[in-house]
Each structure stands twice: as C-alpha cells, then as structure tokens.
Amino acid sequence: MLLALLYDRSFDSVDPFIILAFIIFLPFAAAFVLPIIGSKMKEKIGWFATLISFICFLAVLYLIPNVSREENLSGIIPWINELGINFSLRADGLSILLAAIVSFIGIMIMFYSNGYMSPKDDLNRYYQYLLVFMGSMLGIAFSDNLILLFLFWELTSISSFLLIGYYRDTEKSIYGARKALLITAGGGLFMLLGFIAIGLVTGTYEISQIVSNPEIILNLKSSPDFAGILILILIGAFAKSAQGIFYIWLPNAMEAPTPVSAFLHSATMVKAGIFLIARFHPVFSGTDLWFYLVSGTGMITMIFAGYIAIRQTDLKAILAYSTISQLAYLVTMYGFTTEILPTIGVSAATFHLLNHSTFKACLFLIVGIVAHELGTRDIREMGGLAKKMPITFIIAIIAAASMAGIPPFNGYLSKELFYESSIIMGQQIGGIWSAIIPMTALAGGVLTFMYSLRLIHKVFLGKPANEEMYSKAHEPGAIMLIPPIILAALIVLIGLFPDLFIEYLVQPAINSIAPGSEKLHVQLWHGFTRPFIMTVFTIAIGLFFYMKYDEIAESQNRFCSNYKWFSLNNLYDKAVNNARSESAKISGSIQRGPPTGYIIWMLVFTIFLILIPLSGFYFSGGNLFDPSIMRLPASEYFLLAIIVITAIGAAIAPKYIVAIMSLSAMGYLVALLYAYLKAPDLAMTQVCVETLSTILFLAVIMKLRKKEAVNPDPRSDQITKLLIGFISGFSFLLVIMATGIVEPFVPFSEYFIENAIELTGGRNIVNVIVVDFRGYDTIGEITVLSLAALCVYNIIRAKGMKKEKKKESKEEEESTNITDNITDIVPEEI
Amino acid sequence: MNFFIALLVSFLFGLGIYLILNRDIMKIAIGFGIMGHATNIFIVASGILQGEFVPIIITKINEYTTFIFGDDLASGIIAPIIEGTSEAGMYADPLTQALVLTAIVISFATTAVILTLIYHIDKEFETTDVNKLGRMKG
After folding, report:
1. How distant is the alpha carbon of residue A515 from its chain centre?
2. What is this model's ipTM?
3. Nearest by CB: B82 against A709, A748, A763
4. Mind listing the pLDDT tens digit for each residue in A342-393?
5. Residues A530 and A609 in one domain
6. Which of A724, A750, A753 shows the shortest C-beta gap to B18?
C-alpha cells in the first residue's frame, strides 16, 4: 500500500507547519492565478483545478502516518500577539479526517464538473469559488486558533453564498444564496461571541491548549458563563450544519449547480458544524446541557427532516432533507457520552462522518447525471431509467443501499454503531428513555430506508412517466461516470475492509477527540446482536410503510396547504421581507426627499442650541459686541458691500446665466477678500477654482432644458424660507461673536512657523503645511477628487431607466441633438 | 474677529440656507456655493485672531491691509511667509489657511458632483423642481 510506504519516514527535512500552510494556501493561490491560466486553457480549466485538489490530497495523505503515530504537527506565526490571535496550524486525527474528505471529494467534484458544466458557463468564476471554498475548508480543519478558525469559517459561508448564487439571473438562486448567507454567516457571528467568551474565561484562543488542558476545561465547566458559551457556539455549528430551526437554508441552497451541492452542501461544508461539535467535545461533553442540546436537537431534526423528505418531489430536495437528517445522526451521536463506553457515540459519529461523505456525494453526482440527461429533477417525470443507464443504476443502488443501512456497505456499519450507542445511552439514562432513544434512532433509520428506496424505485424502476424525456436519456460520458464509480468503489471497500480506513483515518480522529479511547472494532457480521435485530426491524417497518408512501406524502401536502403560516420558511420570509419594507418605511418617513424637511429639523436644533442660550447670555448683560472690533478700512467696506450685492444677485436672479455670473463674480471678490485677510495662497486657489466652477456651471446650464429657475412658491412660503434663512444667519453671527466667550486654546501653528525652514526649507508656511507637514491630508484630498471624478463620470454615463422605457421613440429623435459628453459645449442661445 | 466680516459671513450663511430651501435645484447648488464661501471666509478670518480674550485683529497687521501684498515687499515677503526666526505671533495662522485651501479644492469636487447630478436629473426627469422629484418617488 502507498500508506505503508509512506509510513517509515519522519519530518527531518520539512517543517510540518510549512506543509500545513501549503495545503491551505495552495487553493487560494491557484484561485488567484486561475483567470490567467484560464485564458490559455479555456474550457479545460477544470483540469487545472482538479490537479490542485489532487496535490492537496496527496499532501494530506503524506501527513497521515505521522498523525496516526500521534506526532505533534503544529506551528505558529504570531499575528496580533496582544490579543492572543495567532496564525497557528495544527494537524491531528480529526483535522486530517476532515482535510482528507475535503480534498478527496474536491478531486471528484472538480473532475466531474468538467463534464457537468457547459463550456458556455463562466468557468473561471466557478472554479475560483470552488478553490477558495476548498482552501477555507482546509483552513477550518487545520486552524489551531479560534479566531483564525472563525475567519475560515466565514470564508466558507461566503464562498457558499457565491456558489449558490452562481446562476446570477435566476430569482431562486439569489433567494437561496441570500438565505444561506444570512443564516450561516449570522450563526458564525454568534459563534464568534462564544469564542471570545472562551478566550476571556481561559485566557487563550489556542484550540489545542483549550481542549487538552484539564485545568482549563474544569475552569470552563465551572464558569457561570458555561451555558451561554455552549449555546453561542452551538448556534454557529447548528446554523452551519442546518440543524434544528436553522435547517431552512439547505433546501434552498440546492439552486447551486449539482456538483456544488455535492461538495459543499452534503459532503464538506455542512460538516464544518459537526467538526466544531467534535472539536469541542472534550470541553463540553459529559454535561447534561450538552446531551440535551446536542442530542436533543439531533434527534428532533433527524426525525423531522426524514419525515419531510418523504413529501419532496425534487430529487435534490429529497437529498437535501436526507442530508439534514443524516447530519442530525452525527450530531445526536456526538451528544452521547456514556459512562460504560464513554466514546461509543464519538466513534460511531466519526465513522459515519466519513461514510456519509462517500455515499451522499455519490448520490448527488448520480442526481446530477440524471438531471443532466433528462433536463428535469422532478421525480414524477422519471422512471425506468435502469434500462437506459445501467452503470448509473448500479452505482445508485450501492449508494442508496449504503445510505439506507443495508449490508455489506459502509453505511450499514456506522448505522449499526449508531443503534448500539443509542441502546447504551438509553440504558444509561434509564426509565422510559431506555425505550425512547433507541426507538427514535430506529424511526430515523426507517425514514432513511424509505426515501432511499424511493429514489431507486421512482427513478430507475417502473415505467417511464415521460416518454419524450425517456427516449432522449442515455449513459453519460466517462468524465461524469468515473467520480461516482470511484466513490461507489470506496463505499464497497470501506464496507468490506473497514479496518484499513479505521486504523489510518477514523481511529486517529477518535483519539484526538477522546484521547486513550479503546480501539473501534467493526465487522459486517457480529451475531444476532441487538443492533442487527434493529436493522432487520428497520427494513421490515420501512417496507411496510413504503406501501403507504404516497398517503403519507399526501397527508403532509394537505397539512402544508391548510396551515401555510405554520412553517419556519414563512417566518423567515416574513422577517426578511418585512425588514426590507419596514426599513423602507422608516427611511421614507425620515428622508422625505425635498431638503426642506431636513432644514427644519436642523433649524430646531440651531434655535435650541445656539439662538436661545446666546441670546440669553446677551440679554443678561454678557458682552458679545466689543466696540473695538467695529473698525475696518474704507476699501474693505466697499469690498464687503459688493460681495453682498453679488450674493443677492446670485440668489434672486431668475435666469440661470445671470445667477451664475453673479456667483462667479462673488467668487472672485472672495478671492480678493482672502488677499486682504493675509491669505495670498487662498486667493490664488480661489481664482483658479472659481474659474473652473464657472465653466462647469455654464457647461451644465447649456445642457438644461430650461434656462430659468422654476416659479417661486407662494408668498407665505417665501416668507417662511426667508425667516429660516434669517434665523440661521443670525445664529451664526451670534456664534461667531461668542467665540470670545470661551477661553481660546493656544494655537499650535507656532510649531509650523518655527520649524518650516529648518525641516522643509520652505518659506511659504501654507504651502509647506499642505505638501509637507500635513501631506497625508493632501493625499486624502486627492483621493476625494478622484472619487468625485469617478462619480461624475458614472453619473454622466448612467442611462435613465425610467425615461428609456417611457420615451424610447422621443429619445431617438433627440439623440441626434444631444451629445453625452458634458464638456462638449454646444453654443445655444442664452 | 471683525464685526463686519462676521456680519458678511453670517449674511452669506443665511442666504445660503435660504437658497437651499428653494425649489429650484440650480438655486440649491448656488446656495451650497455661497455657504461654502461663508464657511471658508469665517475660518480664514478666524486665523487672524490673536488668542486674546476678546478677539481682535492685531493692529500691526491691520495697518498693511490697505495693500494687498504689502507686508514687506522690499525683501520679497508676503504674509504669512517668514524669514528665519521672528516673533511668531505676528503671523496669521497658517494652519487655518492650509485647511481652507483643501476645503476650496474639495468644494470644487462637490460642486462638480452636484452639477452632474443636476444635469442627470434634468435629463431623466425633465424638471429642475425638487418638489416634483419627491413626488416621482416610488
């Protein structure tokens, strides 16, 4: 075996940290350069992505021997030391298991996508998203720092969002993408709170320290915040793994291309929540709260999702609910911690984690093939495909049988373990629970059996429901067949020779969750034990209820149509859609449009904050107007007077051109005033800017339809506005005059004046400040100008939507007269 | 600060507010321009305060104000340029001027954006009346 060959070597030469970082960053780097390579490889770019995931998988394999010897593979790069946030990576059994699943399924998916995706699709974007997702998933597996884990966690949510919304034009995929992002990324934020709380209680964010140090664990368990931390983290995990009330995003996520669903939404990303639960198993398990929250949620979700799956007619929807139900198995088992066999739940769950990835990914790929061939995913349109697609049919039988828990496939082995752990857990609690827990497990198994049988029966057996589609169907090409064949082979292989996989993959993972746990033994035949009897019952009851399958589905449909309000989706839609309409209402009431509304509010504040206090000060004998400031040279009186005249002209002139000329004259006069106020630089700048503004103003009024201001309001309105203007102006005057009331601060311009020549060699202090002392301000200023330029450019280019629809014909006539370029001034009569 | 400058600033400010309340969008743009001038003049004028309790313009500087660049043209010095070290308090505050210099340039950027918006609004809605624009919403 390859593994055996790799076994005898150690890390004398290569730092394991480098390998871990390489595994994580290779997909990101590949995603980055992918467009460049994509321009060369065109529609073959999928093979590049396949190669990348293959390299990642090899690197993970390379680490397996060291991990199974429980070597310490870790490394750390300090990042934000003060906060305890480090770029620290660590590989243990659990992370290797997840990384192996991710990279292996990654190979399968990217291989398969070469056949599934049409060359017309935006392939670069597709593979980029997939690679980014794979990188972040591997990041989750190997992160040893909680904050780092959180970053990768949210990255998977984002890449999932992008992939669900891959078909950007369809309403449904937008809806699904948004829902998935809101729920998974939102849950992630709760988890972040939990992480920070852990950091506060324990003083570290390093996962390996938290989960292995008994003192820290005891500290956490006795902390009064224990329940809060546990709930916060579980919200994140459940949201990601679609458990409990958070399940609603997963069925809508099926809008993604099928390979994506197989990869993210069944085999890997949704396992991240399970992974988190497993990671924190050493810290939280053994408490009642853990059992009730984790196993309780798991069991309810398992039954509920399995039950709803029966009603579905969309192939992918059946698989989505089945995924929720199967993930609930895992959650339930991780919640089991018994005193007799402390790790039985963990062992069963970890083994099932591996098995579920194989058979569910395989089933999704089969569904992809079927949908690809028939052009529909509706199960009612199918039937009889076994004749047309024999290979696909055989693979489907293997995968579905494994899911249903039928020997000799791998699903059977882990399901037996699940039954066994449920019996032991029931006995542990005792009383009525010793019956209820195994019964719940059995019910979950029965439901799984039913919909697995349904898949095979409705799709491949019986008579074809739609002859036209049926006649077109045929076996797909090799590219789409090879990955499911490999996965099916794996299903059989794990089923027949479980020991190999357990020794190298599952057992190290179990050990890293529960150190020193006994070795997991599984075999196909172990006598007439209780789990075996439960399997027999599962099949028998499942077959019995399968006869009534349509009745059950019908009763569910009736319930759903009678009680439309009774669903979480309804609640979500209401919450999200109402959020939109409510916020529109609020902003609509605050921002009415015309500026008058805002001005009145500003005025209210002006009156209460400035006018009243300052008038009070003045009338109570305060001195606001010192006679010594009343003097001014005669020439300046004149200057001020013409500024006032031009300003009034700009304000009242009805014709735009006159107003603009007035405003421009005022600008030049202000420049002159700056000169009087000892600011020659400003005078210069003002002259330049005023010239430019005037040109711009003129350019715009050239383009306007009317060259005159709209008729003024009725007289009463005019007076109100004048009054508002007067009050504001008067308040401003009071403020200016009141600057003397407060103690003036010492100006720090002395520094610039004293150091200008020495530090910069410039004599003009204003210049020196702008380009030297406060150079960063100038960079900011340049940025603002560039942004404004971009803004202007885009506004000019923007096409009027309303007008286009309303007056298409009219525009055609006018388009000959109107050029789009604003600077291109066409002289018109003014 | 000199009372008349203050009066000018507050007059321009009040006029600017009045214009912004106008229904015509072009007048609003003009109002913004006038308010900008008012603010700039205010800041620059406050730069020649001398940190006394009652703000006054320093007489020595005031003497030269009849000439625009009359500070010391013989040696090529225009306020607030200095040569070597001297009594630093004599100069108008250069920092306020530097800030206003930035403000003037930025006000040009805002004017440009407002004007192109006006251009676009006129093209799309065929009106320059903001009240009518409000009614077109939704």
Report:
1. 34
2. 0.78
3. A763
4. 778 888 899 999 999 999 999 999 999 998 888 888 888 888 888 888 899 9
5. no
6. A724
